[in-house]
Amino acid sequence: MRLGLGTGLKKIMLTLQTALPAELANNVIRLYCECLRRAKYVGHKQHYTELVVDMVRQQFKRHMHETNLEEIQKLKDDAARGL
Q: From which domain of life does this come (predicted)?
């Protein structure tokens, strides 16, 4: 299943691309897409897809204006461990 770029993802991409180096922004966007994919998979298996996907979106939205590179790396590591 391929995820399209929804309005929320487009906003996050624009924010990331202006605030961060290009390579880091692309890594974060890929991580976001992967988290959503896995959330949909796990949610479908457990029959609560909307809840899991919403939790992922909330976490990314909560930190979307973060510009401290060390904090971003920590958040990325935490997200990758959560997958």
A: Eukaryota
Residue 1 lies in a domain: no
Q: For the chain (length 83 residues), average pLDDT per consecutive 10? A: 56 64 79 90 88 91 86 86 73
Token code pair at residue 32:
């976001």
Dist CA 6 CA 21 (whole Å): 22
Tell me which residue range forms the domain holding 29: 7-78
How long a stretch of residues is the chain?
Answer: 83
> Model-level pTM?
0.68
Q: Which residues contact 57 (CB under 8 A, 6 or more apart)?
A: 8, 36
Residue 28 domain-assigned (yes or no): yes
Long-range Cβ pairs for the range 44-47 (8 Å, 24+): none
